[in-house]
Design a protein that fits this description.
- The structure holds 2 protein chains of 2 kinds.
- By secondary structure, chain A is mainly beta.
- Chain A is 12% helix and 59% strand.
- Chain A contains 2 helices and 13 strands; from the N terminus they run αβββββββββαββββ.
- The N and C termini of chain A lie far apart (52 Å).
- Chain B has 2 domains: 92 residues, Carboxypeptidase-like, regulatory domain (Immunoglobulin-like, Sandwich); 88 residues, Sandwich (Immunoglobulin-like).
- Chain B is globular and about 50 Å long.
- The C terminus of chain B is likely disordered.
- Classes of the chains: A mainly beta, B mainly beta.
Chain lengths: 308, 219
């Protein structure tokens, strides 16, 4: 019965997602063409491979699932210089993720962004601040996770010289997923919707000509989704929502919890040409969530970026 | 026979008076590994300062192509008017903070920007306030006799009035100052003078142009 219900939801959501994504794509493309403005078009592309040793954010070893995913993304943005050190960027990007094992998590996403940047003074060493808003729509093979993602970001930074660059950012994220039916009466099925606040500080250092080292620290507070392969009473009592998570298996459940995550990232990148950047990185995150649920994950990635 | 010799002697004397048959300085600039150094500016300052005063500064230009200054290094004579045409289909905002010339050209496209007069000798570092990775150099020379090395590390200054010169080299990434490269030479009209320099070069750190999603630099 549950399986039948699940398939029906997937069909309906799948059709809705295609229509929504189409309309959204048109909206994004229109948004990137302010015809009267004199702007600088930027075409970007990204491809990468990433390994996550705990995709489902599980606490205990039997529930931990590692997987490798392939990422591709193309973006189109228009930078519009304004007066008094201001510039505006309007753009959108289309991306996808393909998992090696957890194919239900395969997804495509389309997002539109608008950002306003202010530079105080002339030159690469002038301090700057930026405010940005993005709206994204994600569509998953496992349609339970389909969501609208709203983000508001503030960032500020300064390059100290040709070698040292520093910036900090804050982001508010509201991920509104399609609500699921209650698995347990009285407990919400909306496990995939999340609200969070995050803070990051980042440092970039030129090791050699065209070789860069990036290090960052992150703190995040808000909703997290932890998936267990079998029902887990401890997590269940601490959770604010519960839903099937068929991408991880027939008896897997996703629990929504409130948690705080601390993490860091180190990365090394090399620019073989003026337009491209090849990089690798390592990230480590540790989360302390309600009910004593504590989990950690590590991610390694290799990415290639192109910008023209 | 005597008539022929007399005619040749006359032609030789006439040739010495024609500017196109002056002295020539040929240089080769290498780094410590023997690799040719491109974009090095070679300058020859005559001991007789009146020679340099006779020269008039020409009009020059530094273009902007694919969000880069072209050429990367541009030597110009003191007092030159330099235009900054923009061959990109976007706007640029060219500036310099250098002591030799402080200026700013507000956002412009095409060839709208007025020329800039470089009236103090020295190095002028160029930047674009919109595209932080754009860097270029103008070397404002107090002598009209200069050249820039090509990919092979070679350059030639022709049609120099024969005489005593102080020659030197400058490069954006050179270790030490250009005064460490000073040499005194006597240039004659009968044969080119060859000089080789070996420069120590520092790594050239530039603001990265292509960057990942984590970078805030651009856009």
């Amino acid at each position: 019965m549950g399986a039948v219900r699940r398939h029906k939801q997937r069909d309906v959501l799948g059709q809705a997602s295609a229509a929504t994504l189409g309309a959204y794509a048109a909206f994004v493309l229109l948004g990137t063409i302010p015809l009267t403005a004199y702007g600088d078009w930027t075409l970007g592309a990204e491809a990468g491979v990433r390994h996550d040793d705990n995709v489902g954010n599980a606490q205990f070893s039997p529930d931990r699932v590692a997987d490798t995913l392939y990422v591709a993304r193309v973006s189109l943005a228009r930078l519009i210089p304004l007066d008094d050190g201001y510039s505006m960027t309007v753009g959108g990007d289309l991306g996808g993720e393909s998992y090696h094992r957890l194919t239900g998590l395969n997804n495509v996403s389309l997002d539109g962004a608008i950002a306003l940047k202010k530079k105080w003074g002339l030159g690469a060493l002038a301090p700057w601040a930026r405010a940005a808003v993005t709206v994204a729509r994600s569509s998953y093979d496992d349609s339970y996770r389909n969501a609208w993602d709203y983000r508001a970001m503030l960032a500020a930074g300064r390059r100290f010289d040709e070698r040292w660059n520093f910036w900090a950012d804050y982001a508010y994220e509201n991920r509104a997923a399609s609500p699921q039916a209650e698995e347990v009466p009285g407990l919400s099925g909306d496990a995939y919707s999340q609200v969070s606040h995050s803070l990051g500080i980042n440092l970039e250092y030129s090791l050699m000509e065209s070789t860069y080292l990036v290090a960052g620290l992150l703190a995040r507070h808000g909703d997290v989704v932890s998936t267990t392969l079998q029902p887990n009473a401890t997590v269940y009592y601490a959770s604010s929502a519960l839903a099937d998570d068929p991408a991880f298996g027939p008896h897997a459940y996703a629990y929504k919890l409130t948690g705080t995550t601390y993490g860091y990232r180190v990365g090394l990148s090399f620019s073989p040409t003026a337009h491209s950047l090849l990089g690798c990185g390592f990230e480590r995150f540790e989360t302390h969530a309600d009910g004593g649920n504590e989990y950690a994950k590590s991610i390694v990635d290799i990415t290639w970026n192109y910008r023209y | 026979m005597n008539r022929i010799l007399a005619a040749l002697a006359c032609l030789t004397l006439m040739g010495a008076a024609v500017p196109g048959l002056g002295a020539e300085l040929r240089v080769l600039v290498k780094d410590h590994h023997g690799k040719p150094v491109t974009d090095a500016v070679v300058l020859a300052t005559p001991s007789d300062s009146k020679i340099a005063q006779r020269a008039k500064p020409p009009a020059d230009a530094v273009d902007q192509v694919d969000k880069q200054f072209v050429p990367y290094v541009k030597p110009v004579f003191l007092g030159s008017k330099v235009r900054f045409p923009n061959s990109d289909h976007i706007r640029h905002q060219v500036y310099s903070f250098s002591q030799a010339k402080v200026f700013e050209l507000p956002l412009y496209a095409g060839t709208d920007a007025p020329p800039v007069v470089f009236d103090k000798p020295g190095v002028v570092v160029l930047g674009c306030n919109i595209h932080d990775w754009m860097v270029g150099y103008i070397y404002v020379s107090e002598t009209p006799f200069f050249a820039k090395t090509e990919a092979a590390g070679t350059a030639a200054i022709a049609d120099l009035p024969p005489g005593e010169y102080t020659v030197r080299v400058w490069h954006p990434s050179m270790e030490g100052g250009e005064n460490t490269t000073l040499r005194q030479v006597t240039l004659a009209a009968d044969a080119p003078t060859n000089i080789t320099w070996e420069l120590g070069l520092k790594p050239s750190f530039r603001v990265p142009r292509a960057s990942g999603a984590a970078s805030p630099g651009y856009p």
